[in-house]
């Protein structure tokens, strides 16, 4: 792709994605078993009038949409950071075990320690971070190469999955409340979940701005980065920690939602290139768009049945991603 063509794409996508974010947010608030017009949304948000539409928006749809935005943004940012660290467009929190680490910690909290359910985001982050550190140590041999990190992550991912299954077998009487979470979804999520998720998510997303420069440096290769005076292993460790925080925050509320951190950064990279000045912000916005749109479809198009958004994303995303791998193009 020529430099001029890529520059034009960046301009168009930078303009289009924020507009799509606004449209999808309004779509998520307005569409459902009861359709709500834009006028009614305005009335509900900015007037004191107490109507049924206002209760639906304020108590059900608005917090769910906001959680979807944060979940998609965090997962996409985590995937983009990990792909930069690994120098591999197939890296993803789910593939290398970060999401499974967060998931195991969340299951332990929900099944074995329900009295600490308010600490679920912290537990998920600790699980994700511990898993990341373990993978990093297992891959270390006078440096941690991206290939070794991915191989170690795949092995740890399988182990953590087996442990989660074992816990569910041993405590089968308590599993019913965990099963929807394992499928990944936003059903029943409201202001309570948003209030304890938002501070962690916003903090992690703000920190991700600091990842732009080191991610770009790591793309040059370890030897080139060291020649520029960069501490490669320190930067790689910090970026993996950030990706763990982002994944842990998303998993703690939305469950094991896949596909977003894998495909969104990959698609954006195919469209505009590897420069994280554009790649990371556009991935964050696009991830938010995807999760809210998919969740709205999952809860509305199959009424009266509500499909967990994680299942819908897997069913739609896997074939699409295989198509991308086969064709190696978007347009």
UniProtKB/TrEMBL annotation:
InterPro entries: ABC_BtuC-like, ABC_transptr_permease_BtuC. Its main location: membrane. The keyword Cell membrane applies. It is a multi-pass membrane protein. SUPFAM superfamilies: ABC transporter involved in vitamin B12 uptake, BtuC. It is found in: Cell membrane. Keywords: Cell membrane, Membrane, Transmembrane, Transmembrane helix, Transport. Pfam families: FecCD (PF01032). The chain crosses the membrane at residues 12-30, 62-82, 94-113, 119-138, 150-171, 191-212, 237-264, 276-293, 305-325. Belongs to the binding-protein-dependent transport system permease family. FecCD subfamily. This is Iron ABC transporter permease. It comes from Virgibacillus dokdonensis.
């Amino acid at each position: 792709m020529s430099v001029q063509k890529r520059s034009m794409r960046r301009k168009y996508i930078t303009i289009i994605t924020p507009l799509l974010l606004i449209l999808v947010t309004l779509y998520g608030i307005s569409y459902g078993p009861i359709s709500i017009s834009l006028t009614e949304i305005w009335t509900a948000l900015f007037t004191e009038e107490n109507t049924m539409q206002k209760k639906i928006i304020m108590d059900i749809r608005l917090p769910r949409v906001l959680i979807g935005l944060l979940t998609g943004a965090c997962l996409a940012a985590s995937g983009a950071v990990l792909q930069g660290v690994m120098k591999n467009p197939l890296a993803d929190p789910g593939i290398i075990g970060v999401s499974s680490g967060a998931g195991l910690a969340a299951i332990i909290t929900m099944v074995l320690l329900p009295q600490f359910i308010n600490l679920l985001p912290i537990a998920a982050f600790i699980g994700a971070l511990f898993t990341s550190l373990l993978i990093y140590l297992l891959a270390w041999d006078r440096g941690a190469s991206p290939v070794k990190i991915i191989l170690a992550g795949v092995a740890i991912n399988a182990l953590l999955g087996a442990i989660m299954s074992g816990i569910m077998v041993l405590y089968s009487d308590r599993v019913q409340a965990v099963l929807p979470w394992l499928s990944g979804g936003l059903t029943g999520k409201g202001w309570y979940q948003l209030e304890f998720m938002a501070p962690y998510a916003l903090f992690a997303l703000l920190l991700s701005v600091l990842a732009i420069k080191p991610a770009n440096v790591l793309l040059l290769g370890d030897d080139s980065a060291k020649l520029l005076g960069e501490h490669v292993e320190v930067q790689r460790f910090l970026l993996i920690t950030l990706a763990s925080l982002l994944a842990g925050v998303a998993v703690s509320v939305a469950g094991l939602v896949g596909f977003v951190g894998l495909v969104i950064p990959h698609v954006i990279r195919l469209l505009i290139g590897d420069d994280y000045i554009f790649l990371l912000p556009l991935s964050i916005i696009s991830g938010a768009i995807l999760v809210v749109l998919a969740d709205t479809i999952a809860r509305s198009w199959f009424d009266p049945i509500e499909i967990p958004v994680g299942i819908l994303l897997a069913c739609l995303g896997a074939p699409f991603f295989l198509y991308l791998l086969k064709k190696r193009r978007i347009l």
